[in-house]
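step=encode ok
step=design start
structure_in=
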């Protein structure tokens, strides 16, 4: 459905609307004529959301709901036609007890799905990550039929929390919400221009530190990447396509992209502070125990996985923009 189609009689609830991806999902929906009810963890985020859509606020409402509490969800779902569940617990450090990640990820997903079902919402799209398909893989091609094993020793607490949340989702749908049409979106590392100011903990922050020259070198890793605007469009397409149900969509470029390639694009465009060399892997392994950022990077060392996105391109009629465009648009926005 293109721009200009007025579908304003339909309202979509977007959880985590103030986040990097949540804002883009809301923007894509508003541009296609939908009403959006966005949930935020605290009322202090409302102005930032409204500022991002200065011209669209008549079709945007905001509800304060937390994934860890039942409060406010029943009201938030009143008059809602579909759900796009983007929100996920935000914990910066690798926790001492991984239940700090797992419990809110699982309980938050189940809470949102339960309130959606009780409100009679029968159409839901849930954001996951490519790592629930490929978190255990070092090479080869992953796709919708691949599942990262919960007990894999190479995955971190964050990946395990996403695996647990997805397993809980499909279990809930198959036992308690058989008439709901549900699909999951599994983005690669997300880049692209932010609509708000909060990009902490995202791939955008990696790009920012490259542009400002605040890192000594380029992360020596290679990951499937994708533009935030294309991820948002995939969510809307999955929601709109009534033939799609119970499907998992890998949403990224099919081939992995090395951060060194990203650096080359930036340097060629005149960003002179971008380092030209990769950080040695041995250094990352040595410093990972004392540096949180390097510790999270360590999980990706030596990995280079390809994505089978054929069902995404076929079912959702989805085509990603070029990585050059994404990188340069992100840099310009920063």
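sequence_out=
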């Amino acid at each position: 459905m293109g721009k200009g189609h007025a579908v304003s009689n339909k309202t979509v609830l977007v959880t985590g609307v103030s986040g990097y991806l949540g804002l883009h999902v809301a923007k894509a929906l508003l541009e296609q004529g939908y009403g959006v009810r966005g949930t935020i963890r605290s009322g202090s985020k409302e102005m930032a959301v409204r500022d991002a859509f200065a011209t669209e606020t008549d079709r945007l409402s905001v509800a304060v709901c937390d994934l860890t509490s039942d409060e406010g969800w029943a009201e938030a779902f009143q008059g809602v036609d579909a759900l796009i569940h983007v929100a996920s617990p935000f914990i910066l450090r690798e926790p001492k007890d991984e239940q700090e990640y797992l419990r809110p990820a699982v309980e938050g997903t189940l809470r949102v799905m339960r309130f959606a079902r009780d409100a009679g919402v029968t159409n839901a799209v849930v954001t996951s990550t490519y790592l629930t398909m490929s978190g255990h893989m070092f090479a080869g091609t992953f796709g919708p039929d691949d599942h990262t094993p919960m007990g894999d020793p190479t995955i971190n607490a964050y990946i395990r929390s996403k695996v647990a949340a997805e397993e809980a989702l499909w279990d809930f749908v198959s036992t308690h919400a058989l008439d709901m049409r549900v699909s999951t979106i599994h983005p690669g590392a997300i880049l692209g221009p932010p609509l708000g100011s909060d990009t902490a903990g995202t791939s955008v922050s990696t790009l920012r530190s490259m542009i400002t020259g605040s890192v000594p070198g380029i992360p020596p890793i290679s990951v499937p990447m994708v533009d935030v605007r294309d991820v948002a469009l995939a969510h809307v397409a999955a929601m709109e396509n009534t033939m799609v149900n119970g499907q998992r969509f890998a949403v990224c470029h099919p081939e992995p992209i090395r951060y060194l390639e990203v650096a080359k694009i930036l340097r060629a465009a005149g960003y002179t502070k971008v380092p030209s060399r990769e950080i040695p892997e041995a250094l990352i392994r040595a410093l990972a125990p004392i540096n949180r950022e390097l510790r999270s990077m360590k999980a990706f060392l030596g990995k280079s996985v390809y994505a089978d996105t054929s069902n995404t391109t076929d079912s959702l009629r989805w085509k990603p923009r070029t990585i050059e465009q994404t990188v340069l648009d992100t840099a310009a926005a920063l």
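step=design ok
step=annotate ok -> Residues 170 and 215 are 40 Å apart (CA to CA).
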